[in-house]
Amino acid sequence: MRSTRLFAVLFAMVLVPTDDLRAQRYDQLAPQVQNQVVEVGDDRFAIADVTLIDGTGAPAQTGMTVVVEGGRIARVAAAGDVDTSGMRVVDGSGGTLIPGMMGLHNHLYYTAAGGRGMQLNFSAPLLYLGSGVTTVRTTGSRNAYSEINLKAEIEAGRQPGPRIHITAPYITGGTGSTTMTLLESPEQARRFVNYWAAEGATWLKAYTNVGYEEMAAAVDEAHKLGIKVTGHICSISFREAVEMGFDNIEHGLFTNSDYHPDKQRSECPSDYRSYAMSIDPSGPEAQETFRAMVDAGVPMTSTLAVYELFVKGRPTRDPRALEAMAPEVREAYLAEKERIDREGWPPEWMTTAMAYEKAFVEAGGLLAAGVDPTGNGGALPGYGDQRNVELLREAGFTAEEVVRIATLNGAQILGVDHELGSIEEGKIADLVLMSGDFTADPGAIRDVTLVFKDGVGYRSATFFEMVKGRVGIS
């Protein structure tokens, strides 16, 4: 296919990534990118008469106009107070404008039903950006050099895609997956951290079976080098991770072993999840975890979209996602979905997990959001981020709260909130325009029409067309 050849990653050299936040201008994009996927390349334009949810948590404002100049937000004001003569005007009437979303648990690989995994350096960047996710953290890597090279291609303007914050390959221990780094000593942990810091990783990701002493050494070494640490943990409970100095914790209640009565250090109890799902999110056990996290300033990342796939009776057949899957991947996923609807986790687990995240925020916790396109393959890059937003609305958050979780909170965790994460004058113009009213309809998040990254407007529909039938292949 022409589009596949167009954006294929051809670098053979490893390029060390940077976190440069200078706006990437239209004229810095390759001509083929400009011609195929860009709708708005003007240096100065306005998005007019739109409902604005600015990402700060402030109430939505109707009839607003946002002026962008030189890739940055130049003015935010009521439509009647802005003179748009002489500039291009994007009609936002009837629509909603939010900041570009921050995917805080997003991968550039994908796991289909049956456990088959593959790198998605073609389809994942297009799905993320087209869905409104303008920044991702690759929270655990299976092919770090591929992702470092992809980041360089995007930054050079040769391939469209989100900003990428590189996480080193997973670290685990014991009998964990052999696709991950199996740490056997604190000394090995320190060597690992130093190596990947030199290669450009800015985050580490701990996984389920990592040993306590090895992980403590990794955290210590990472912080010496200015690298942050997160984890999908179990052998280390949430409260132990806080004591160790983690900077973020992934997945919420679904992975928390704090509540198992026989939890031993460095061990992941096989039945920990049943204990976790039996707690009261407003009760003393949960509140003890929340107090520890809040007092230490440790955020949590919501990935409800990937766990929903394992719950009986949940509405997880997104027609867009099914169209994007390669035929054999689609067939395997639908067969697995039928099995889960008969034998999956009980529905109340999902309700409890959502209540846990709501209670965490009510206790003062900082919550971000992502997708984690693994599991049984039903949560795709981008589409799954949008689904996570819908699930947060279902959990009881307001539209304004959900937008903040998906945007400014993530920017704060990544340390880029001075430039991104909210629609404020002077910030980089990463914006998402949807055709519907998100304040009234959570499903409007699926109706993204234009996504602006660095003030360049990309057509979502073009991206979605390009990836049909590709997820699971490239």
Topology record:
Blueprint lengths: L1 H5 L24 H7 E3 L3 E9 L8 E9 L2 E7 L9 E4 L4 E4 L1 E6 L2 E3 L5 E3 L3 H9 L1 E6 L5 H12 L7 E3 L5 E2 L8 E2 L3 H14 L3 E4 L5 H13 L3 E4 L6 H7 L4 E2 L21 H5 L7 H13 L3 E3 L1 H4 L11 H6 L2 H17 L3 H16 L4 E3 L13 H12 L4 H8 L1 H7 L16 E4 L13 E6 L2 E4 H8 L7
Parallel strand pairs: 2-5, 2-6, 7-10, 10-11, 12-13, 14-15, 16-17, 17-18
Antiparallel strand pairs: 1-21, 2-3, 3-4, 6-19, 8-9, 19-20, 20-21
Helix pairs in contact: 3-17, 5-6, 7-9
Can you walk me through this structure?
- The chain is an alpha/beta fold and 474 residues long.
- The protein folds into two domains: 2-13 and 25-99 and 421-467, Roll (Urease, subunit C, domain 1), CATH 2.30.40; 101-414, TIM Barrel (Alpha-Beta Barrel).
- It contains 17 helices and 21 strands.
- Strand 3 and strand 4 (72-78) form a beta hairpin.
CATH level 1 class label of the largest domain: Alpha Beta
Which percent range describes the beta-strand content? 15-25%
Structural class: alpha/beta
Question: Gyration radius, to the nearest Å?
Answer: 21 Å
Number of alpha- plus pi-helical segments: 17
Total strands: the figure is 21
As for the number of domains, it is 2
Multimer state: single chain
Give the N-to-C terminal Cα separation. 12 Å
- Molecular shape: globular
Overall pLDDT, averaged? 94
